Amino acid sequence: MPILPIDTGRYGTPEMRRIFEEENRVQKMLDVEAALAWAHAEVGNIPRKDAERIVAAASLKHVRLRRIKEIEREIKHDVMAIVRALAEASGSSGAYVHLGATSYDIVDTATALQLKEALELIERRLNDFEKVLTEKALRHKETLMMGRTHGQHALPITLGFKFAVWMREVSRHIERLRQCRERVVVGKISGAVGTQAGLGENAMRVQELVMQRLGIKAADISTQIVQRDRHAELVCLLALIASSLENFATEIRELQRPEIGELAEPFEAERQVGSSTMPHKRNPETCERICGLARIVRSLMVPALENVVTWHERDLTQSSAERFIIPEACVLVDYMLFLMTNIVANLYVNEERMRKNIELTQGRAMSEAIMIALTKKGMSRQEAHELLRRLTLKSELEKRPFKEVLLEDKVVSKKLSEKEIDDALNPRNYLGTALRQIELMVKKTMKERRERGLAD
Fold this sequence. Notes:
Blueprint: H1 5-8, H2 14-20, H3 22-42, H4 48-57, H5 65-75, H6 78-89, H7 103-139, E1 144-149, E2 152-158, H8 159-184, E3 186-187, H9 203-214, E4 217-218, H10 229-255, E5 263-264, H11 285-299, H12 301-306, H13 317-345, E6 348-349, H14 351-358, H15 367-376, H16 381-398, H17 402-408, H18 410-415, H19 418-425, H20 434-451
Parallel strand pairs: 3-4
Antiparallel strand pairs: 1-2, 5-6
Helix pairs in contact: 2-7, 3-4, 3-7, 3-9, 5-6, 7-8, 7-13, 7-20, 8-10, 8-20, 10-11, 10-13, 11-13, 15-16, 15-19, 16-17
């Protein structure tokens, strides 16, 4: 029976789970064995008819998973169990199966084939999320809201500005992923310790042909394994993506608090239950799920980094850890991207609440704008800052609108007219270059998407 929540189907998309299912994994290993036999025939190491029989047999239609497991229970070696099962299915041609190869020629190359599919899917998810954020940045370019620092009201921004910041963070992850893929999706046919001694005089050509047939590149040089700095880089990148998603989810959770009420994740009012005991609850449970899963993904960095260390040309310490960390990292990050894209695409935005929240501080959040206005009238910046610090405290303690306090102050009223004060206190007048920045970043993102071959 399934134990882990990925296996039960609770977490993960069908597309990514399929990539890491046992049947697909074994088929990828059979594909590598088939490519190896074909390459040996191409350089004249084995008869072509034998290679053709091996290629034809290298399928789960002929090499049954239950037979592989029977052999493994007997010999206690998973790769050799596949080799023997394929050899059985290949008849007399089975004598040439796995010729000159070591186990991790097959394992590492099969992993590369899985990662090729997995990273294509993750990049597609990132592209979809980037597009949603681009649309939201434009739609809410002028949706005024309060910017917060340290959890406190700071200065006005727009919701579109927030989305544009997220958009560019996702764009950077796409760039990182595309660069990382070149180093990660590599296989090898180098034999024991990496010298290719068992592959004959055409060993390098054999490796080249195998990789060409499989559609991936060969590692520049390797020992008995592909060096694990490659996989560690990928897991660290996936953890970074997960952390960004947690950051976005945390912001939505914070802004969904009833005290703030500016944003909320989608909620199916007709059917969804928020709490088993409190009928009124509309918990941000999907955002919370993303935050929780991000912790799991980040935890995978430790074994991934420890897997870089190996005794001499090979030991087996990486093997057991990788069976967890590579599928888990890919499955969870893909799933988190799927969830977050849906959240943002269907996000509830309460613009009226945003306007009311801006008014909570009775204008005090515009103190910098007043300070700048005073400096333009010749007042020292430091003097203006101290004056406004005292006036904001007075407004807060006396629970009076900041404008009233400003008009009563002799220094302020002498330098600024009521209209000038009103203009400075208007949040829309103090957005700086925010709208222009949104336009520029959307334009930059659209250009990058076209360069990736994506439609606007």
